[in-house]
Structure formats: C-alpha cells, structure tokens
Amino acid sequence: MVRGRISRLSVYDVRFPTSLGGHGSDAMHTDPDYSAAYVIIETDAEDGHKGYGITFTLGKGTEVVVCAVNALAHLILNKDLRDIVSDFRGFYRQLTSDGQLRWIGPEKGVVHLATAAVLNALWDLWAKQEGKPLWKLLVDMDPKTLLSCIDFRYISDTLTEEEAYEILQKGRVGNREREAQMLAHGYPAYTTSCAWLGYSDNTLKQLCSEALKDGWTRFKVKVGADLQDDIRRCRLIRDMIGPDKTLMMDANQRWDVPEAVEWMSKLAEFKPLWIEEPTSPDDILGHATISKALAPLGIGVATGEQCHNRVIFKQLLQASALQFLQIDSCRLGSVNENLSVLLMAQKFGIPVCPHAGGVGLCELVQHLIIFDYISVSASLENRMCEYVDHLHEHFKYPVIIKKASYMPPKDPGYSTEMKEESVKKHQFPDGKVWKKLLAGQENC
Ligand SMILES: C[C@H](O)[C@@H](O)[C@@H](O)[C@H](O)C(=O)O
Ligand SMILES: [Mg+2]
C-alpha cells in the first residue's frame, strides 16, 4: 500500500574522480569524473522508507543539476504519494510543464535531468513500499495502471494509448516463463570496460584478456579522435576476441555526417555491429543518412544516451535513423518516459540496448530492460544491456553479473540507494576525497 506525504527532499553533489585513471574517457569527454545529483525523498509515513534517486552527470555539471532539483522541490513537497502514483501521468506533466521552469527545457537539458533524479526517487519509494524490486512492480502492474504513468502528449501520432495497451496485452503471453528465465539466467550484457579512449594499448590488452576469461563475448571500443589510433586499437581488440565475438564502436558525437560515413568505411574491416553516436544527438536526419550509407557494410547506428526525450526518439524511429535504440534511465524523464520509448521501439521492431555504466546507470536500467523482455519485447534477438565495471561498491544493492548477464535484483526498490559513507566521502567539495584532491591541486 502506498502511503505518506512527502515531508523532505534533499539533494547532494556526489562526484568520483574517475578522470584520474582515464576511466570513462571518450572522443568528446576526455576527463570525465563520474558524478550524480543524488536525491533523497522522505515522507511522514511510519514505515521509515525513503526514496533515493539519481541522475548521472560529469563533475562540474552536477552543481547545475543540483540547483535545478532545488527549483523543482516545491512541486513535490507536501504531496501525498498516493495522489502522485494514482495519477502519475498528471504528476509527470505538472513537473515537466511548470510555467516558469519549462522555459529552460522543455523536457530537455538540465531541468529534465533534475526531473529524472526526482522521479527516480519516487519510483524507488513506490517500489519499496510495495516490497518489490522495480522491474517486478512493473511486471505485476496491470496494463491500464502502467499506461496511466505515461504522458502520451507529442507521441500519440505514432503510438496511441490503445496500441500501447495491445502491445502490453500481447506481452502477457508467456510472461511467467520469461520471468523464470530471467531469474535463472539473467539478461545478456556487453562490456565497455576494456577500451576507454584514454587507456593504453597494454591496459586494453590486459582488460580484454581478463574479460574473455570472465566469459564476456560482446565488447565496445571507443573511437573517433584519431583514425590511425582507431585502426590499431580495433585490430588489437578484434585479434584478441576473434572473428565470432561481437564488437561495437562508440564515437560519442565526434563527427560530421560525411566524416562519420568515411571514417566508419575505414573501420568496417573490423566488423562492428554498430557505430554509436556518430554525430550530434539532435541530428535525426543525419543519423538517417549515416544509417543508409552504412547498411551495405553491415554496420548499424545506435544512439540514445544523450537523446533528450520521447519526441526525439519518436522521430529517430520514424526516420529509420537508428537500428539499435539506447534508452537511458537518467536522461529521459525516469520510468514514466522510458516506458513510452520501450513501447514505441516495440511498435517499430527496433531492439533496445540500454546505455549504462556511469555511476548507478547499470543499477537502474537493468530493471527497465528486464521488464521490457518479460512484458514488452519478449525477445533477446540483437539485444543486450551495457555493463561497465565501475563504482558498484558504492551502492547498497549493487548489480549482480553472472556469466556476462544481469541477474534480476531481488531487493525492493530501484537499486538507487548509495552507501551513506560513500556519499559522505565523495560529496563535492567537502567530502574527504575531494578535500584531499583539492588541497593537492592548491599545493601544485
Ligand atoms: C563519458 C561517458 O563515459 C561516456 O563515454 C559513456 O557513457 C559511453 O558513451 C557509453 O556508451 O558507455
Ligand atoms: Mg556511448
């Protein structure tokens, strides 16, 4: 039973100095400090449950998102949780349509990242109060209730509520078997941990051989800064993994459209399954041009980690601009908006391969993709969820990977809660970790 009035919302700027080791580096983000705007929501209910929510950020960006969360707080405080979840569509719309705040969105950028953090905390709280992991809360929810969480505004020309209902009804066939299959074998994953752009060839080799030993069969390599480096690194990794394992490439928006096509023609010999974010995430028709040009080479286009909202995803699908759709649990407006994208992808027959990694993204998005398999797509063909082996130790309910697959979480909630000690130590700028680092910089 859902209960309680929201009595408190706190937000923290939590940063991890991952840039020191080149972890997470790519052709555009050369010094990423994996960070989160971390939201805690409390209620006056006696159960003591709190909702934890994050959005993923890189270092300095976090302080801006923290401001935006504080600006949204008045829309959440004193609301009854029961009223929120019984009309979640209405509440989502209230948050995203605030007459003053929407001007700096709408439904995009900082204000949308802040919305995601807040809504992620509410979903965590709801799932905790129901005593279920989030994926199971979604799987058990009747289709009508599930659809009542989605704002269909701007997408009803492509997906009506009735069509979405039919998709969910169809998804009920065989869902118990798929749930049992997930619990036994988990959801297939790929690793990005071996080949960040800032890693030396030696590090790449060492991590790749460890990953192979651990049973990984799908690998992603960062490309896009220097063609000769890319050729060398892709050859190295392809030689190590052999011809049959899967390789993906990620350019993180580095290229213009013709450059993307030309560059990828040179990397085609390494047989990538996809090129991810070849150009600006806003360039829908550019993605369509690249998709068309690379199709004869057997290379698909993947994108989504910086896709603003359901409207851009709608157009990417309409324009046949992507062959792999990458939802992100913290960029879109939380579970609510991600549900609409999963349903649109299903309608278009495009496989969803979520973006994860960062800090907490694996913890969150596993719930969405497990739900997708059980209740929406019913397919694992061409589908896998990203995995990155960083920062899980800071979470109270970290992901469990077995045989290169995500095992469904069993603890109630959205796996968003961080360890108190980790938050304390990594708060910027006053946590122990940052005090030391900043003092070191001053002494230089
Ligand atoms: C800055 C980040 O590490 C990105 O490079 C990362 O999210 C990446 O695009 C990915 O696909 O995992
Ligand atoms: Mg990427």
UniProtKB/TrEMBL annotation:
What this protein needs as a cofactor is: Mg(2+)
Q: Which PROSITE patterns match?
A: MR_MLE_2 (PS00909)
Mandelate racemase/muconate lactonizing enzyme C-terminal domain ranges (all copies): 201-297
Instruction: Please name the InterPro entries in this protein's record.
Output: Enolase-like_C_sf, Enolase-like_N, Enolase_C-like, L-fuconate_dehydratase, Mandel_Rmase/mucon_lact_enz_CS, Mandelate_racemase_C, Mandelate_racemase_N_dom, RHMD-like
Annotated EC: 4.2.1.68
Record GO terms (molecular function): L-fuconate dehydratase activity; magnesium ion binding
Q: What does it catalyze?
A: L-fuconate = 2-dehydro-3-deoxy-L-fuconate + H2O
Family to which the UniProt record says this protein belongs: Belongs to the mandelate racemase/muconate lactonizing enzyme family. ENOSF1 subfamily.
- Protein name per UniProt: Mitochondrial enolase superfamily member 1
Tell me the name of the encoding gene. Answer: ENOSF1
